[in-house]
Amino acid sequence: MTRVTLKEIERILEITDALGLSREALTIPLRTRHPGGVRKLPNGTYEIVVDAKADFEQWLSWLRSRLSELGAAG
Question: Largest Cα–Cα distance of the chain, in whole Å?
Fold first, then answer.
């Protein structure tokens, strides 16, 4: 996967919505990278970068866990 489409963004938002994260607190670059990742920025927003080489479904599971580790629990 080299780019993030609306389909992937909608799946990511399902997870972040369930965790109670505001959509305004998210940055999701449209280009994938390897490795992907999630980090909480100093301004309190979350940058979510989809991993270019990972299976997207497995990556979504990892995303949920990582966001919880960063304190985004709903």
Answer: 30
